[in-house]
Write a structure and sequence with these properties.
By secondary structure, this protein is an alpha+beta fold. The chain contains 15 helices and 21 strands.
Amino acid sequence: MAGAMRSSSVPFLLAALAALAALPAVACTDPDDASTGDDLTSVHGLEHTIDFDAFVDVASGASDDVVRGAIHRQLKSALGALRERGIGVADRDAQRNLAAANLVRSSVDVVSGGATVGRVDRVRYHYRDTALVERGRVPTGPIDLTLLFGDYVARATELTPICSDDAAADPGSLWYHFAPARTACRTAIRDEQRAIDLERAPLVAAQLGARDRDRRFLSTRATLAPVAAAPDTWPEYDQLWGFAGDPARTKLVVYSFFGVDRDEADPADNGLREYLRHQRTLRARLPGLRVVETAPHAWLLDFWIDGRRLEGVSWDDVERWVIDGAGFPEAVGTDAGKRAALLGQVIEHFSERWIVWQWTVTVRRGAVSRDMTVEIRTFYGWEDGSPEARLHARWRYLEAFWHGDVFAYTGHSHFGHGPLEPWTYGGGNFANRYQVMLINSCLSFNYYDEDFLAMHPHGSGKLDVVVNGLAAYWHGMGQATAGYIAGLVDGEDRRWRDVLTAMRVDVPWQSAYDPMRAVNGELDNTFTPTAGAIDLTRR
C-alpha cells in the first residue's frame, strides 16, 4: 500500500496466498464504545462488532502492567491474522480494550513427566472492537482465529519461515505479517494443539503441561455482528467553499504529502512514481491546474543532456519517463547513462521540494457567488528514517493541520508510529474549521482516525477522516489520492460513498482495487445538495 508501508509482498485475498511472491509492493512498515460501532461509511467494507476470548501466561504474581503488555503483544498478532481474512479493526494498539480489560487470573502448576516444574498465572480476557469486513467475505457464522502466543519476537527465527507472508520481514513486524492460513503454519498449529491436548489428558484443572506453557499459538473463535449501515452523507462542501460562516474566503487549500518507499535516490522508487501518477491524475481531472510556486525554487521542466537544454519538455514527458519508463527524448534515446542522468534530474527537481499548484474557479450557491482559488501544496520526500526527517515531516504536517482544508498523506504507515503518530499532536494544532483528512496507508483504520477525531476542535463536527481497513499496494495509490482530492474540489457535490468509489483504481492484479477505505466522523454532517448545491465554473 502507499501509506505506512513496507515494500514487501502481503496478501490481499486468501486465494492469492499461493502467489505471494508475485504480489506487488505494499505500503506498510514499521476510542468510542465499540459496542455501538462508529457507523462508518465504506463502499468495500461492511461494519461489524467483533468479539473473542483469549488468554496469556505470565510469571506467577506478575503485575497487571506486565499482563497488559503480554495481551497487547498478542493482540497485535490479531491484526495480521484478521487482515488475512479481509477484516480490519479500529482499536489502536488495543488501547480501549487494555484500559477496560477485566483480567481473570488463575494460578496453575506446570507439570512435566508427572512432576511440577513451575507455576504461571493464566490470565483470561475478552476483546471487543469495531471491525470492517471486506464485502463479499462476510462469514455466515463465527470464525476460527489463531493468535501468536508468548514472546514471538524471540521465536521469530522458527516462526517466520512457516507463518509469515514476508520471509524478509524483521522480527519486530512478525505480528503484521502473521499468516496462519499458510499451509505450513496450519500444520504447525494443528500439530501443536494435538500435542497439548494429549499432554492435558491426565492433568487436573489447576495444572497445565510444559507443551502448553511453551505454546506458540492460541486458537480461539471470534463472532462478528453486523452494524446498521451508515446513512448517506456528503462532505461539508458549503464549509469547504466558505458558504457557511466564512464569507471572506477566497482560497481552498489542499496539502498532499508522499513518503519515500525505499530509496529517494532511485527514480524507480514507488513513492516518486506514485507522486507523479498523482500529479498526472490531478492535471487530467482539474484542467487548467498550474504550478505557481516551488520551494526551494526550481525550474521543474528544465533538463540538460550533454550540456544542452532539452527543448519543449512537458509534464506529460516527465510523467512518462518515471511512471511508464517510456517517451525519452531523442537526445537520450536508449543510452543507459543518459537515461540515468535525466532521471537523476527528475529526482533533484521533484523531491524534498514544495510544489504548489493552483486552479481558479467561480463557485455559486444560490444567489451567492465568488471567485475562488484551489491551491494544492504537494511534497514528496523522506518523512521517516532519521530524527531530522521525522522532525521536518512533523513541521510540514503541523503547517497542514493549521492552514489546510483538505489533507492527504500517502506512504508507509510505520505501524502507526511514524511522524503522523497521533499522540504527538493536540487540539491546538488544528484550525477551528471543517477539515478533511486522508491517511492512505496500510491499516490506517487501526492507527489514525479515532485519535484525530478525538483531538480536533469540535471533534467529528469539524473533521472527517478517510482511512484504509486493509493493506494498500503502492501501485495506483497516487491515482487514488488524486481521486480523493478531485472528488472533493471539482464541484460535483459527490456523496462520501461516491468519493470513495472514485478512489478505486484498476491495477494489473485486480480491477477496481480498494483497500477497504472508510470514512469516520461523517455522520453529523449536514450538507445536502437539495438544501443548496455548489455550482462550479472553471475560469
